[in-house]
Design brief:
Layout (H helix, E strand, L loop, with lengths): L19 H35 L3 H47 L1 H14 L4 H25 L9 H24 L6 H23 L4 H30 L1
Amino acid sequence: MTQPTGPTPSPQQPQHEPHEGTLGTRLNWLRAAVLGANDGIVSTAGLVVGVAGATSERSALLTAGLAGLLAGSMSMAAGEYVSVSTQRDSEKAALADEKRELREQPEAELDELTELLEDRGLTRDVAREAAVQLTRRDALRAHAGVELGINPDELVNPWHAAGASFLAFTAGALLPLLAIVLPPASARLWVTVLSVLTALTFTGWWSARLGAAPARRAMARNVAGGALAMGVTYVAGSLLGAAGA
């Protein structure tokens, strides 16, 4: 049998799978972006539809929509900044405590790492050898990952979180804002309602997909919530408009 000529192919290199923590973090950020856009859609739609119930003036609708967009996006960004800053401070404090414990009681920390690896299914001997090797390579990183679930090189960034929340909310809020001010007065309400419900159907489907949840239930819940918000604010706006006439 003739042997193939040419260079011997090298063994296939293993593919580097993304770390579970990194993948989970990315999914959480993506889910937060979808939910932020959803909040922008619902809150701004409720605001402009409520104003539309009281007046058909395009300038009033634009002013209300822009005010809601800016207030909502800034509020989301500020809230996310404060929340993630607190989380980052907690991660830094936990790493500082771990570093001190490694310096003051290294043997106890080695035993603790061994037990944690045993809890993950390794035998005592294998867990001990793995703990020793991980400690020699980078003790803090080993304990941070196994014990705390923290990557010291990938601490959460409050500025990134604030910026992402601001952009997500703004992107969502632009849809009802444009839908209420661009069409003629006779069609703007229905254009807005249909545009918002379509967008909420998509965000409900996408959030369900990210969370591996049933899509129909999530979409129905999302659409129902948005429709209720617009219905309530429209009735309130109509009553206020009639009372002020």
